[in-house]
Amino acid sequence: MSTVVWFRSDLRADDNSALAEAARDGGRVTGLFLLTPAQWRAHDWGARKQLFVWRHVLALRERLAALGIPLWVRLVPDFASAAAAVAEFAREQSATAVYANAEYAVNEVARDRLVAEALRAQGTAWRRLHDFTVLAPGTVRTQQGAPFKVFSPFRRAWLAQVRGEPVDCLAAPAARAAVEPPPLPDWEPPVATLDPDWWPIGEVAAHARLVDFVERRLARYHEDRDVPALDGTSRLSPYLAIGALSVRRCIEAALAHNHGEWDSGSRGAQTWLSELVWREFYTHILAEFPRVSRARPFRPETDAIAWREAGVDFTRWCEGRTGYPLVDAAMRQLAATGWMHNRLRMVTAMFLTKYLLVDWRHGERFFCEQLVDVELAANNGGWQWSASTGTDAAPYFRVLSPVRQAERFDAEGAFVRRWLPQLAALPAKALLQPGHPALLAAGYPEPMVELKGARERVLLAFRGLAP
Ligand SMILES: Cc1cc2nc3c(=O)[nH]c(=O)nc-3n(C[C@H](O)[C@H](O)[C@H](O)COP(=O)(O)OP(=O)(O)OC[C@H]3O[C@@H](n4cnc5c(N)ncnc54)[C@H](O)[C@@H]3O)c2cc1C
Q1: Are 234 and 272 in contact (CB under 8 A)?
Q2: Which of 199, 259, 274, 295 is deepest in the core (most CB within 10 A)?
Q3: 3-state secondary structure at position 420
Q4: Domain at 2-129: CATH architecture
């Protein structure tokens, strides 16, 4: 038996369903990764995300070579070329089967359908395994058999299925005689800055970060997670997005810390486990409702909203020059690191969609270009939630005020000072009052929009939409 494992968003040897299954009977296993730069650009992936993926492919290639599994990297422009490339590779390797872990966005599903056809036509078996989430999309349904559209009942149903069952992680394949890593195609990743302190490379580094987080920060997560100046969250999202770490390993570690309890015991662990269920929820939504992959709102009636032209307001938001220090500091954090704190993703997304009344799709795309952790299901889910166009969305009249949020979560201005160093010497009082004379004297811009009037404007835009 000779099997090809086609790696996509599962760039690890540990706990990888397709790889473990392929290696199970001890037959020959060969890895394949398709570099698809034109597709990445079409999907709005920024340079940082592309570089992060590329470096993880290189790390995986080394790791697999040490285990005796060669990982070949083939350069094709896009998904349209995938079927021919995978089929040809399988023939070259005299493979009897190709295994891959499923991806759920529409283009990925369409690509896999063509791959399956091409393989069938030449007599190569094709297996698509579920791996990205604990429970496969389509397996968590209401009693009527419909997909859930709201998080809390989804979480209850999800927990009812998972609780009591061990969340089994699969070991990396047993090492065979080491091989030389195969040659690489002639391709240069785009130039980008990836701070190695923020984003160390490889599944071993990802796992070390998980262990460190669980040991040192998980117990306080429920309190610290909302304070952007603290290092209170795991920052594992980029690794989970590309599969350098499995969600099962995260759950295993959190449950071990919490004596196997899901919704009792440590509040930090319970809250963190719940966030991982949000990841499951949005992945299921993506798979069950293909329209969200197609830039359509989850709630179709919100298509009627008269969004404003993006224009200069959008540019000011992108560049962090809104005149609201918390918003601008968050946008600077994004530009500098490729990551933004979750609370500030909500604050900045609501600022754009609610106070500026700019279409969420502009913001979603900008985040996509900037984030190192970008992942369609979570990014789309987060944007549609913030814009009140999505599943489980914030009600349209719920608008997080950047002033109130700063008072609650950055009262001393520690976060703002870190990312807007020109304001570092100002007292917290000034940082909390956009338009404060001390801010203007420091050359910081006037607030670009008046919140009260802007709130009225968005309420008017949403009111009267058919339910
Ligand atoms: C507008 C907006 C855009 C977002 N875009 C993305 C994105 O492109 N990629 C992404 O992974 N997350 C996205 N999120 C969700 C969330 O902000 C990040 O997952 C989180 O900030 C990552 O930091 P962390 O790893 O320290 O998270 P932790 O707090 O440590 O949480 C652990 C993990 O749970 C998952 N998770 C946490 N919150 C959410 C959530 N609300 N939805 C889905 N999964 C979640 C992530 O995989 C995360 O790594 C977005 C949220 C919003 C509001």
Answers
A1: yes
A2: 199
A3: coil
A4: 3-Layer(aba) Sandwich (3.40)
| Binding site membership of 225 for ligand 1 (Cβ less than 6 Å) | yes
| Residues annotated as catalytic (active site), given as ranges | 275, 278, 307, 342, 360, 383
**238 CA: nearest ligand 1 atom:** 11
Q: Quick check: pTM over 0.85? A: yes
CATH of 132-168+203-288, one of 3.40.50.300, 1.25.40.80, 3.40.30.10, 3.40.190.10: 1.25.40.80
55-to-75, 198, 203, 208 alpha-carbon distances in Å: 15, 14, 11, 17
Distance CA 352, CA 365 (A): 13
pLDDT in tens, the chain (467 residues): 899 999 999 999 999 999 999 999 899 999 999 999 999 999 999 999 999 999 999 999 999 999 999 999 999 999 999 999 999 999 999 999 999 999 999 999 999 999 999 999 999 999 999 999 999 999 999 999 999 999 999 999 999 999 878 789 999 999 999 999 999 999 999 999 999 999 999 999 999 999 999 999 999 999 999 999 999 999 999 999 999 999 999 999 999 999 999 989 999 999 999 999 999 999 999 999 999 999 999 999 999 999 999 899 999 999 999 999 999 999 999 999 999 999 999 999 999 999 999 999 999 999 999 999 999 999 999 999 999 999 976 788 889 999 999 999 999 999 999 999 999 999 999 999 999 999 999 999 999 999 999 999 999 999 978 66
Q: Which CATH fold would you assign to the domain 300-462? A: DNA Cyclobutane Dipyrimidine Photolyase, subunit A; domain 3 (1.10.579)
Ligand 1 atom at minimal distance to the Cα of residue 276? 34
Q: Using a 6 Å cutoff on CB, does residue 235 contact ligand 1?
A: yes
Distance CA 92, CA 10 (A): 23
